[in-house]
């Protein structure tokens, strides 16, 4: 086996192992233990998830990142504004239509036709990808745009049906899935690389953040103008597997479906890449060969990953929430949510892509370990709040409005690069693990506690997308404080050295700008 691929798979194994152990322990001690077939599907799904994540992260390094960066550079080099706008809009819309996470969400809202919801969200992503690409070129601060669009968003909330508010905010998270995130992150890096001013590093991030706002606005507008009479959720059907043959059949039935979904999504990216190559001749033959191999790795990895989490994790998530919420131990869901949230973020494939890019662009000043710890804390907070919200039936806007106000207020005090990273992290964390494990967990909890599914269960993806905005920016404040402390100490030491002439002993002190540590 390729040495690098083996390292990627072992890294995925260490990321997935904690959440697998937690789920197995809880499933054993549940009042009504799960069927052995369900547990077997979960274990098989975990294995597919590990192997798939290993291939995906390697493929993203080899293909998705170079492709996205090249497209970002070539698009922004064009002197024709109309071409940039049209290219970005079409690219964003097509990639979103094929995003598997969005299809999962659309199936949960039968009161609106799937195609109407999908194309509405795709239009929102396409429009905001245009805005995101143009922002660094016209040098508008990310925080300015975020304040403007979130004010519009919360204004529209006042007119949208209550049942569509959680779905709207969830759509902002699911559209930035494992296919779109590496590509959009790389585009941001490419756009920033053609500038040489001091703010170009800060503008490397923020594309995912803005692309997450578009779907929220689009779905809110759809809820206002489409005006469905009701918004109900399809009854959740838990796959049964009485025999090992049934387990194999569930996986083999779903594997071709996800192969088609992934092929559509990646095919749209490849189409734009071929057009770019024919026009610009940017890549040499050996580069194209490496990208082609990386593309195959990405496709194989994503098909395995999505099949594993959809078949193996959805039933377990739903049953965990349902049985615990219906039992006398329902408040155990709060600490369980915190524990699951802390470890599950490492199983999101796009998180590894973001963390690596942050470490590279910041030249190691912001390490992958720091990002992992910050995102894990944010996810734990999101799941804790969500479980409390469902059990007490707290309206989601009571949490989202203060949360976003605080997150946006922090943008005025933290280094600009942390603002972009934080708001990108919100979209990255709300990936396939959120839609295929956390959302079923919330739906099962809501059903077991007798809550309204649309109002209480939906919104968990929105919570997962919001908490990193606060945690990563708080990390930025600490980083800024310690950097200033270090600079002050260095200045004091320099002054002392120049003043010392008698040889007295000087205590220089000790300071650390930022420790590593965390969940590797």
Can you walk me through this structure?
With 520 residues, the chain is mostly helical. It is 76% helix and 0% strand. The chain contains 20 helices and no strands. The protein has helices spanning 3-29, 36-77, 81-97, 100-107, 114-138, 142-157, 165-174, 180-193, 207-226, 244-280, 285-312, 314-325, 333-344, 349-361, 368-392, 397-410, 416-429, 432-449, 453-457, 460-499. α1 runs antiparallel to α13 (333-344), α6 runs parallel beside α9 (207-226) and α17 (416-429) packs antiparallel against α20 (460-499). The radius of gyration is 23 Å and the shape is globular. It starts with a helix and ends in a 21-residue tail after the last helix. The model is unreliable at 516-520 (pLDDT under 50).
CA radius of gyration:
23 Å
Percent of residues in helices comes to over 70%
Helix/strand order, N-terminal first: HHHHHHHHHHHHHHHHHHHH
Average pLDDT score: 79
Structural features:
20 helices; globular; 520 residues; mainly alpha
What would you say about this model in short?
With 520 residues, the chain is an all-alpha fold.
Per-chain topology:
Elements: H1 3-29, H2 36-77, H3 81-97, H4 100-107, H5 114-138, H6 142-157, H7 165-174, H8 180-193, H9 207-226, H10 244-280, H11 285-312, H12 314-325, H13 333-344, H14 349-361, H15 368-392, H16 397-410, H17 416-429, H18 432-449, H19 453-457, H20 460-499
Helix pairs in contact: 1-2, 1-13, 2-8, 2-10, 2-11, 2-14, 3-5, 3-10, 4-5, 5-8, 5-9, 6-9, 7-9, 7-20, 8-14, 9-17, 10-11, 12-18, 13-15, 14-15, 14-17, 15-18, 15-20, 16-20, 17-20
């Amino acid at each position: 086996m390729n040495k690098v691929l083996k390292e990627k798979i072992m890294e995925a194994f260490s990321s997935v192992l904690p959440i697998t152990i937690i789920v197995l322990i809880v499933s054993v001690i549940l009042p009504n233990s799960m069927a052995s077939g369900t547990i077997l599907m979960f274990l098989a799904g975990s294995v597919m998830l590990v192997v798939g994540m290993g291939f995906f992260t390697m493929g993203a390094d080899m293909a998705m990142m170079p492709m996205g960066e090249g497209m970002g550079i070539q698009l922004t080099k064009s002197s024709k504004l109309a071409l940039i706008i049209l290219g970005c809009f079409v690219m964003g819309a097509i990639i979103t239509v094929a995003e598997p996470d969005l299809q999962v969400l659309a199936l949960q809202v039968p009161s609106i036709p799937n195609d109407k919801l999908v194309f509405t969200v795709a239009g929102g992503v396409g429009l905001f990808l245009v805005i995101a690409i143009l922002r660094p070129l016209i040098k508008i601060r990310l925080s300015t745009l975020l304040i403007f669009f979130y004010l519009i968003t919360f204004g529209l909330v006042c007119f949208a049906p209550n049942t569509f508010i959680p779905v709207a905010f969830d759509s902002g998270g699911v559209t930035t899935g494992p296919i779109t995130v590496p590509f959009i992150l790389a585009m941001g890096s490419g756009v920033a690389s053609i500038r040489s001013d001091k703010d170009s590093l800060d503008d490397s991030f923020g594309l995912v953040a803005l692309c997450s706002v578009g779907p929220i606005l689009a779905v809110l507008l759809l809820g206002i103008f489409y005006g469905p009479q009701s918004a109900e959720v399809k009854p959740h059907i838990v796959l049964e597997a009485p025999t090992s043959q049934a387990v194999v059949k569930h996986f083999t039935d779903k594997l071709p479906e996800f192969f088609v979904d992934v092929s559509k999504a990646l095919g749209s990216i490849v189409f734009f890449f071929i057009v770019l190559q024919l026009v610009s001749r940017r890549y040499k033959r050996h580069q194209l060969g490496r990208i082609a191999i990386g593309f195959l790795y990405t496709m194989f990895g994503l098909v395995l990953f999505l099949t594993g989490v959809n078949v193996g994790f959805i039933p377990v998530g739903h049953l965990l929430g349902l049985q615990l919420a219906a039992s006398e131990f329902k408040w155990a869901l709060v600490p369980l949510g915190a524990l699951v949230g802390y470890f599950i973020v490492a199983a999101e494939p796009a998180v590894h892509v973001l963390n690596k890019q942050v470490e590279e662009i910041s030249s190691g000043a912001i390490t992958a370990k720091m990002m992992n710890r910050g995102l894990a804390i944010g996810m734990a907070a999101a799941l804790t709040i969500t479980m409390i919200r469902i059990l007490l039936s707290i309206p989601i806007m009571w949490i989202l409005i203060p949360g976003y106000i605080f997150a946006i207020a922090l943008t005025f005090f933290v280094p600009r690069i942390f603002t972009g990273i934080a708001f990108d992290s919100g979209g990255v964390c709300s990936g396939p693990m959120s839609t295929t494990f956390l959302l079923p967990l919330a739906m099962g909890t809501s059903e077991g506690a007798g809550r309204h599914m649309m109002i209480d269960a939906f919104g968990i993806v929105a919570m997962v997308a919001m908490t990193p905005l606060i945690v990563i920016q708080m990390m930025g404040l600490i980083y800024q404080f310690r950097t200033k402390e270090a600079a002050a100490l260095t200045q004091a030491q320099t002054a002392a050295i120049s003043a010392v002439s008698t040889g007295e002993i000087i205590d220089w002190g000790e300071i650390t700008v930022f420790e590593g540590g965390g969940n590797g």
